[in-house]
Structures are given as C-alpha cells and as structure tokens.
Description:
222 residues; 6 helices
Amino acid sequence: xxxxxxxxxxxxxxxxxxxxxxxxxxxxxxxxxxxxxxxxxxxxxxxxxxxxxxxxxxxxxxxxxxxxxxxxxxxxxxxxxxxxxxxxxxxxxxxxxxxxxxxxxxxxxxxxxxxxxxxxxxxxxxxxxxxxxxxxxxxxxxxxxxxxxxxxxxxxxxxxxxxxxxxxxxxxxxxxxxxxxxxxxxxxxxxxxxxxxxxxxxxxxxxxxxxxxxxxxxxxxx
Length: 222
C-alpha cells in the first residue's frame, strides 16, 4: 500500500465485497488508478466510471447496486439529482451507503444533503505527490494524519513551523528511501491539532482545509 490509501479507505468504512464507483479521472492524473488499486487491495469491486456521462453513470449505479462512491462530493449529488430527473425511485434504486470524497471543499449543507439520502460521507486529503495524507473518522472533526508522514504547519512566506492551532501551509516530509521527499510545501492552508480525538485514534488531525497559498482555482477537483 505504497500511497497509504488502503488504510484511508478502510478507516472511512469500505469493506471487502463493496461495489465501488470510482469517478476520479484515470488519465493525466493519478487519482483514479491510485484509488482503484487501493479498492482492489482491500477486496472491493471497482467500477471505473471516471467523470461525465451522468445518465450512463446513473444507470450503472442502479443496475449494479453500487454501494460505494469515490470522487468529488458535488458530482455524487449531481448523480443523485439526475437519478431523480430520470424518474428513478431513489428509495429503491439508490443503494449507496458510503462515500469517500476529496478534491474540493465539502460544505456542511452538501454533507447533510448526502446524509439525508442515507450516505455516510468521509473526507480525505489526497495529493498526486504524497498519496493519502489524511482521512476523516466517524467523529467528522478533522482528518487524521496518515502514520507514514511527518507534517508541519508553516508560515507560507518564511517556511518556519507554526504552533498547533495556527493557520498555515501544510508541509509534508515523506520518509521513504526510494522517494525522499523532504519538506514538500503543498500550497494548502490548514490547522493542525494534537488534541485527543473521541474516536481513540492517536494521530494528529488537520482540522480543515481553509484555502490555498496561491490563486489556483479548482474546477471539478482539478
């Protein structure tokens, strides 16, 4: 599990035998294949749908009784709304139970809208350079840092580490002999907490992603 994503998926609630729709792109970016390999690694059946073609995706969801989703949260809501538009009885045809979402901000209203459909939603922080950086637990109060990474919150200008509870840039060290990535500045702004989590996990948490250091705009998770 080189990219640390099996643990991320398992902690989110995915289990062997789940039928999982992976809506991340499989070309030009690694997210699709990263998570495809992780799903297969824990025994899930992966349906590599990628992005777009919402009507076909809705039919796939209904016919295959897909119960897991991976992708950006807004696209999952779009698929459910399309299912309603096409006349499906979502109470019967929507088998979705668990969703791992990444690539864009998850607003409280969007989470509630998905929860109201009976879907457990867990956020993850994943990058192309690092794989799984952090994942959300059932407490939904920040994302736990993956065990194989060392993370600092730093001043975006000076690079100096900041104390816990301060907003700063996420800087990651990957202690790997074959890929010695040292103090990689992600460009993401967050807050690091070492307060104990009620779930019992002991790793520090990124409380939330609050923005970017630069002016890069994300569109459809890219």
